[in-house]
Amino acid sequence: MVTKCTYFNGLIGALKKKDNSQAITPNKVVLNPLVQQVAILNELEEMTLKEELYIFEQQCQVTLLRIPISTKQQKQIEEIVSQFASLSYEVLDNQILITKGNISQEAEVFVNVPQLATQGHDAFISYLRQDRMDSSGGQRSDMLWDVAETQNNNEDAFDAVNEGEGGVYAVSSLSGKKVAMFKPAEEEVFVREGLKAGEGAVREEAAYVIDSANGSFSGVPPTAVAQLYMTNSKSIKPSSKSTASHFKLGAVQRFMNSRMGSLDDFGMPHSTEKASQFVSVDQVHRVGILDIRLFNTDRHPGNILLLGDSPPYSLVPIDHGCILPSWDHLSEARLDWLSYPQAHVPFSTQTIEYINHLNPTEDARRLRRLGIREECITTLRICTMVLQEATKAGKTLHWIGSLLQREGCFEVPSALENLICQACDACNMPYSLRKCDTGEIKFLVEQGILSRRPPDVFHDCLKRVLINYLNSST
């Protein structure tokens, strides 16, 4: 049974009345009397839509904005968009397509490697650097050219490297040298809330883009979304005579030659001294900080490679197809490094400086350019705020990770989910908490403008309740 209650009256009142360390009660629907009125767009929806349109108007590298709408919302949304003289729009298939000026085509977010390679090396590299692979000294452009050359010299360049439903292939030369790893988007299989099958490739690229834009602090290998030509994909039917089906879109990542394999082949020592001799504190922190920012739902020892001939080894994080779920689905963080002794060690001065200089606004622009959904970009904003404010309060990586990850059997909301509920209370944003058949309590926001992108006032409220929680915790 779902019960009803009212919001707190304003942010200040909410913060005074509510204990920020208090857990949220399940089976609760929070409704504001204002929200109950028959208004298609309330003040918060109008606020966040205008904020998003302003950002879109200012970001020159993004030319098309898609916003899902209902029939009842259409008139009100059109009125708001019409207030922006530089924007044009059309309604198509339950969404409004907003463009700048006369631009009506969405820029491609991938490159057809075999096709572009026919133009030669210089044209290939020049095009990519002028287009969307203009960061980190051309490492991705060079990687894709190596892939193109490998394919040109070896028609059977793709070797499946694992069993199961999802496809992972090594791109290898005739001599067997691995150049890159390729994951076709159509072979993705996800069981995570807030993620959609087919989006894993761009998420793999997003992890690299965010990391490389911030000095490659965490060491994510060069990764790009690209289209390759392969003849032995699991999805190609043997009877198919069409070569068009051989072009596969997916994530291409530079192969990292790890002689030692992954952390899954070893056990992390329990003592801090011995663990740090195996892998340094700094290396664990670098991977953990990336996972916090991107809300990784699948970080385990099997996707952390060990580099080096002897300890202490360097860590290379891979497999980022399950990062950045939508902000209203933050119940499935998986951060296995929480059990590592290094996570309990305070951040170094260098690491604190790195965290303080992170700019979520600029990183959000980078994610929009890749086509990451707005509700997932909100997750980056939330998690970067948590990382920065908790670091200012002197919290460890373990403390911060424990804020994100649910305890025990994952049935009860995490501390972060509780804080998000309190922020919704403070800014009069409707939500619900319901227990599903498996016994897990789920945070829900009705699908629409607010679930896609909460307004800036929500982030202001979240920052206030977070700081209050940090001040009250030991």
Which key phrases capture this entry?
four-stranded mixed sheet; alpha+beta; 3 domains; 17 helices; six-stranded mixed sheet; 474 residues
Can you walk through the features of this model?
This protein has 474 residues and is α+β, with helices and mostly antiparallel strands. It has three domains: 43-100; 119-187 and 222-254, no CATH class; 263-431 and 452-472, no CATH class. The protein has helices spanning 11-17, 33-36, 43-58, 74-81, 113-117, 121-130, 139-153, 200-213, 272-278, 281-294, 349-356, 360-370, 374-392, 397-404, 415-426, 449-452, 456-472, and strands spanning 3-5, 28-30, 64-68, 87-92, 95-100, 111-112, 158-160, 169-172, 178-184, 223-229, 247-254, 304-307, 314-317, 431-435, 441-444. It has a six-stranded mixed sheet. A four-stranded mixed sheet has the order 1-2-14-15, covered by helices on one side. The chain has a three-stranded antiparallel sheet with strand order 3-5-4, covered by helices on one side. It is globular. The model is unreliable at 1-22 and 27-41 (pLDDT under 50).
